[in-house]
Predict the structure.
Amino acid sequence: MPTPSHTPETREFTHTIDGKGESSPASFDVINPALAEPFAKCPDATKDQLDRAVQAARKAFKSWSKLSFGERRDYLHKFSKAVEAKAEDIAVVLTKEQGKPLSNAQFELNVAAHELCAFADLEVKNETLRVDKTHRVEQIYHPMGVVGGIAPWNFPIVLGTHKIAQALYTGNTMVLKPSPYTPLATLLFVEASRDVLPPGVLNVVAGGNDLGRWMTEHPGIDRITFTGSTATGKKVMASAAESLKRVTLELGGNDPAIILDDADFDEMLPRVFMGAFMNCGQICMAVKRVFVPEQKYEPVVEAFTKMAQGLKVGDGFEPDVQMGPLQNKMQFEKVLDIIEDTRKHPAARITTGGHRLNRAGYFIAPTIVADIDDDTRLVREEQFGPVIPLLKYKSVDEAIERANNTEYGLCASVWTKDVNKGAEVAEQIQAGTVWVNHHVGSEADLPFGGFKQSGVGRELGVMGLHTFMESQVIKVPLQ
Ligand code: NAD
């Protein structure tokens, strides 16, 4: 049955540079992953357009940086209201380009409107570090200048919002670049700011990976906030090193969920399952490995298999759909490749799924894998798709050691009725966030980021806001 997916977008999408809409001489196709067909054109920013966006941001910085936190908070509230007014339209475009169910796209817009305000509720305070007989010493914070934001394709709006809200609230101006796979919703989102923010404070330019590289090399950009893969993060850090730009890198993950044997299995298994399959498994902090005590292993395999078979997969505009397609062809082929590799291991059991769906688009059936070794691609790599390995363990110490045996360290979870025991296990896991009886989520006031190759630095929370500012110590003699 035709859905809104089948209606091409004929309107013109534009960058926002110095408060005005601009197209580009060239454009590229944006693909709807539910059909594997182009549905719209996106302008492809030139180097000159990036230069002008940076110049506009530098000019706007002079007055924006002088505003108080309270004044900038008021602007972010107005921006949030403008987003709310356009949220329905932006959500439809988000589902078309990203593939997620429309209800999830609407939720993402709601979260973004809320978070534009939530960061601005945090207080960045100057501090008196010392007063002694001779001196008073203050630590104060200054905005850095122009922030370059580079975003991925899995949560384009929420992740873009984190960058915008933190940069602008702390007195910086911004040039944002969405992923070339999902640029359009972000262009509309920033368009909503044109009537409410002073020109040049927030600019957005769409383009390919070269545009990202031009940003990391750009002498007019002072700080980069990057979210994406670990491989690209390394290139961003190397390139930013040339001018010693400040960088934070929010990168990939291979999150373990450790189920302890006293957990309330009926209550928690559906939550662990959704932690793995939400957004088609394409979340940096999705559950990517599930550790199950050996005496509970077979019932858990059975329960996961049943839940996977009951998941409604389809075009994000179909009613009641719970999981859409993989977002792009490259990711689709990567996940199919990991499934093929899994078949080469004779012990591994694919209890359900393990194939693409027999329809157009980048759909893969929800896949459960039991009895697979740790030393396999599915367990070692970030699968970023609807395939989850269930790993049997004998002792909790063994589970912790295996959970930590990865180059990643983004998030993790421990599931148990004994929350004190859960907290004890959590402390032993090498990850930036560990939940007890929960998995997936970020909150404006909690610092977020990864251990090891899951990232560099932290964003969110007051700690994150400080990374958008320079600390200055002022030492004044007492009179
Ligand atoms: P990606 O690294 O391919 O692309 C991310 C962005 O970087 C895109 O906008 C891309 O155009 C740009 N880019 C590519 N090459 C560049 C270069 N040389 N210089 C500068 N920019 C460049 O990532 P992706 O495939 O879009 O996203 C998926 C990855 O993102 C996963 O690994 C996922 O775990 C990670 N991710 C991490 C977080 C987090 O908060 N830690 C959140 C979401 C996604």
About this structure: Residues 59 and 339 are 51 Å apart (CA to CA). The two ends are 80 Å apart (CA to CA). The pocket of nicotinamide-adenine-dinucleotide is lined by residues 150-154, 159, 177, 179-180, 209, 212-213, 216, 227-229, 232, 235-236, 250-253, 284, 382, 384, 410, 455 (CB under 6 Å). The mean pLDDT is 98.
